[in-house]
Amino acid sequence: MNDILRAVMGRRTRVRRATWAVVFLGASALGGDCDGDLVQDPTFRDWCGDSLCAWHLDVGHVTPVPTWSKDDLGVSFADGTQISQATTESSATCILFTTVANLDPTANLTLMVDFDSDGSYEYTGQLGATSWQKVEEEITAPAAYQGITFAIVKKGTGTAVLAEMRIQSSSGCTAAPSAPDAGTLELGETCSDSSECADGLTCTGTGTDLLCAQCSDTQSCPGDAGVSCSTRSVFFPNQCGPGQGLGASGAPCLVGTDCVSGTCAGATPIPLGDEAGACDLDAALGASNPSNCQWYGARGGRCQ
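^ that's the sequence the OP posted. Answer follows.
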């Protein structure tokens, strides 16, 4: 057994190659005072049927598979899959991510961090290609927040198997606090300026209730002049002809009826308060009255 595999099996390896985007760090640069895991099941071993027990399957499909050992299971991601876990963490000032994975160069596996769990992802970091090497990355949290949602998204076609995604409170971060990446916020995510929204979207709303939307009073719907700009309810973003099946492949959407194909991948309901019950976006927004989602917003997906 070579040295890399022997080190990984002990889960005590130093950082051999930091391949994450944004910051490249060696082990000596990372904060070493870890206070404990912020997420449940960081090693993806607890399964409830065909889904992970602690991680919510937002879209797509996951499978338990062997890692470097047939007795040590990890999670394999199908194309177009997103899993997430919401936490009540509110005091961590520095967050350390430790990943052990087998990722092809074309896997396009991304970690996203949403402080306040409001649908606005302040940090997005792509995990680079690796073969069971331990990689560490840390980010500085905002000065004040209530709760964090962590999401793992696979968009590429290559193999993506995670054996570990340990997320811990740490100390010693020197980077500036995370802020929304320019041009990455999707339909329905909170924003402060249109430059934060993905191509084709605009930041609009009333007062502090600003969302990335397809259209506004100053940005009309593209193409057919007869397509109206409207919203399904007060907490959802403006859309161009919602529910009319107009969205081509890659267009922003909330549910399948927004798309020509009838399939919207990646849309996620966002609870806005304690009153929020269960919300099935496709069922609720396909009806005339989205009553079971009245205390929800949504982070949009893309038409397939």
